[in-house]
Amino acid sequence: MAVVARPTATADRVAVSRPEVTAYIALGANLGEPAQALRDALRELGSTSGVRLVRASSLYRTAPVDSSGPDYLNAVAEISTTLTAPALLDALQAIEQQAGRERPYRNAPRTLDLDLLLYGDARIDSPRLTVPHPRMGERAFVLLPLAEIAPALVSAAQRQAVTGQRIDKMD
Question: Is the pLDDT confidence value at 4 over 90?
């Protein structure tokens, strides 16, 4: 796809418009008030410059995977964004920080976790970001909410592969 950037003159800088990209974000939390944390994160995501919230899945309750602590609440959001994938990752991490996210160890219980699952049809493999998310196909808490809002993105084989994982739709 050829992209033509159109500079827009402003008083002190030149802004470059970018085409919108459809991206999918996984949301999860299991500390504090997880339902409120997810609602707040969706609101923050939708008010982020360069991001438009298109839709969000229902909330799902799941047991921790490769982790401990209370059950998680999870969801997936579809967004349209003009941000680059690294800039979107920065925005997601800023929302996590605002929610009090700490990273004491891998897969620690958390107040909020936001993962970039898909960014258009991009394939990214950098030390900081891998897209598509490398473990999304192994997790019911990603695949079922994603299938709810974008069924064409989740195959029957992928759904079958996670049938043994406990997941309960909340609303």
Answer: no
How much of the chain exceeds pLDDT 70, in percent? Answer: 85
Q: What is the pLDDT of residue 163?
A: 93
**Whether 6 is catalytic:** no
Is the model more confident about 98 or about 1? Answer: 98
How far apart, in whole angstroms, are the C-alpha atoms of residue 115 and residue 138?
14
Task: Residue 78: name the closest of 133, 26, 29 by CA.
Answer: 26
Domain ranges of the chain: 18-169
| Strand 14-16, strand 7-9: pairing | antiparallel
Q: Which of 13, 101, 125, 128 is catalytic?
A: 101
Q: Which CATH superfamily is domain 18-169 in?
A: 7,8-Dihydro-6-hydroxymethylpterin-pyrophosphokinase HPPK (3.30.70.560)
The predicted pLDDT at position 137 comes to 87
Active site residue 90: no
Task: Give 109's contacts (C-beta < 8 A, 6+ positions apart).
Answer: 30, 31, 64, 67, 68, 69, 70
Query: What H or E segment, with its residue span, contains residue 62?
Result: strand 60-62
Is 171 an active-site residue? no
